[in-house]
Amino acid sequence: MVKEMVTVSARIRRSQMEEIERLATQKGVDRSAVIRELLATAIHNQKIEEALNQVRTLKITVWKAAEKAGVTYREMLVILKAQNVPFPLSSGELRREIEDILKAGHQ
User: Fold this and answer.
1) Would you list the DSSP string of 59-97?
2) Could you tell me the CA-to-CA distances from 7 to 30, 52, 102 in Å, in that order?
3) DSSP state, 54?
4) How far is it, in rounded angstroms, from Cα 84 to Cα 20?
5) Mean pLDDT across the chain, nearest whole number?
6) Which of 49, 55, 94, 96 is the most buried (most CB within 10 A)?
7) What's the CA gap between 77 and 107, in Å, rounded?
8) Which range of residues forms the domain containing residue 22?
9) Is the pLDDT of residue 58 over 90?
């Protein structure tokens, strides 16, 4: 399946263009390829950040965050750990966890 390409125009700083040209030369590709790669990376990172913010505020589950970010559940667990985001538990789940810990302590 061929993905439709569109042309986008944007103003960027000269230093950014110089860096794009440097990367293109280093990789042996044209500037457009570098810009597409950088945009894809930035979009992916933005999706992850948005998903992490929603997990932090308990608006979505880790499963849903993984889906929104376009990564697997296991990858999202690694990202949560790397970003120091605690695994979200609902109040009911937390209550059950505490009860289980207390029961185990009395045995």
Assistant:
1) SS-HHHHHHHHTS-HHHHHHHHHHTTPPPP--HHHHHHH
2) 15, 31, 61
3) H
4) 32
5) 90
6) 55
7) 32
8) 14-105
9) no
Using the predicted structure, report yes or no on whether residue 7 has a pLDDT greater than 70: yes
Query: Is 8 a member of any domain?
Result: no
Name residues whose C-beta falls within 8 Å of residue 97's C-beta, 6 or more positions apart in sequence: 89
- Chain Cα centroid distance, residue 52: 7
Please, are residues 62 and 39 in contact by the beta-carbon 8 Å criterion? no
For residue 3, being part of any structural domain is answered with no
User: Which residues have C-beta within 8 Å of that of residue 3, sequence separation ≥ 6?
Assistant: none
pLDDT of residue 4: 92
Query: In angstroms, how far apart are the furthest CA atoms of the chain?
Result: 68
Q: Which of 13-22, 60-69, 75-84, 98-107 has the lowest mean pLDDT?
A: 98-107
Confidence of residue 61 (pLDDT cuts 50, 70, 90): confident
Residue 2 is predicted with a pLDDT of: 75
Q: How many domains does the chain have?
A: 1
